[in-house]
Amino acid sequence: MAETTAEGMQAALQRQRDAFRRAPAPDHAERDGRLARLDAMVRQHRARFAAAIAQDFGARNRHETLLLEIGPTLAAIRHARRHLKRWMRPERRASSIEFLSVRNRVQYQPLGVVGIMVPWNYPLFLALGPLVDVLAAGNRALIKPSEFTPSCNAVLAEAIAATFAPEDVAVIAGGVAAAEAFSGLPFDHLVFTGSGNVGRRVMAASAPAASAPITASRASAVSAMPAASPNRSGRSTRCT
């Protein structure tokens, strides 16, 4: 995949933003249709995804990819499609005694264009899992995969381009410089998964653009409590 330039990213963002302004509130049928196409895409290309990820990792059993990436993605799509009508339904809110004649409700609306930054360890699920939520909420998405998974990225970009119009979903290619430029784009929301160090760089890069809120997720240290051979000092052992 050729690296996407900063100008190319801006153009991709503007294309999706213009499309959102033309159709800011997709109905249930349109959202469900996008989720259905995503489901079909994952099923059609799952063998290619598993092979590409194995190539990127050097040796990753295809069953791990099927179990921990393909399966959860399909489950997320099923869940979203099953509950989509209820999620889109306005919610009633109570009125105070002074306004008993008033009916209050909350009508959830799409934000616009969402950026998704993907780490290397689970490059498919951490790209498509957030995409399920983005599409269910009626938004559009730009996806920036990790530069450490080039084979998976190539299959993902090809599959996305064959499934969605670029004004709906698109994949951005590139390394560290492209990731920094991507995080600085003025998205309506940015989803980031990765380390704390990279997360701080993403926050710093997005600050000048006055971007909308960032949803950030990172792996935490794992603590283990010894069982068969306890530490004689009485202290537990921490594994990081």
Quick take:
Belongs to the aldehyde dehydrogenase family. By secondary structure, this protein is of the alpha/beta class.
Number of strand segments: 9
The name of the CATH topology is Aldehyde Dehydrogenase, Chain A, domain 1
Q: What structural class should be given to the helix and strand makeup?
A: alpha/beta
Order of SSEs: HHHEEEHEHEHEHEEE
Count up the domains: 1
- Percentage of β-strand residues: 5-15%
Major β-sheet strand ordering: 5-4-3-6-7
| Highest-level CATH class | Alpha Beta
Work out the radius of gyration: 21 Å
Name the CATH homologous superfamily.
Aldehyde Dehydrogenase, Chain A, domain 1
Distance between the termini: 35 Å
CATH architecture: 3-Layer(aba) Sandwich
Round the mean pLDDT to the nearest integer and report it.
86
- The unreliable regions are 220-227, 229-240
Indicate the overall shape.
Answer: globular
**Approximate helicity band:** 40-55%
Biggest beta sheet attributes: 5 strands, parallel
Q: Helix count?
A: 7
Task: Please describe the structure with a list of short key phrases separated by commas or semicolons.
240 residues, alpha/beta, two-stranded antiparallel ribbon, Aldehyde dehydrogenase family protein, 9 strands, 7 helices, 5-stranded parallel sheet, 50% helix, single chain, Aldehyde_DH_dom, Aldehyde Dehydrogenase, Chain A, domain 1
Q: Can you walk me through this structure?
A:
The protein is an alpha/beta fold. The strands form three sheets. A five-stranded parallel sheet has the order 5-4-3-6-7, sandwiched between helices. A two-stranded antiparallel sheet has the order 1-2. The protein is 50% helix and 14% strand. Helix 2 (28-57) packs antiparallel against helix 3 (62-88), helix 2 runs antiparallel to helix 5 (150-163) and helix 3 (62-88) packs parallel to helix 4 (125-136). Mean pLDDT is 86; it is low at 220-227 and 229-240. The protein has a single domain (6-89, 110-218), classed as 3-Layer(aba) Sandwich (Aldehyde Dehydrogenase, Chain A, domain 1). The chain has seven helices and nine strands. The longest helix has 30 residues, at 28-57. It starts with 5 loop residues before the first helix and ends with a strand.
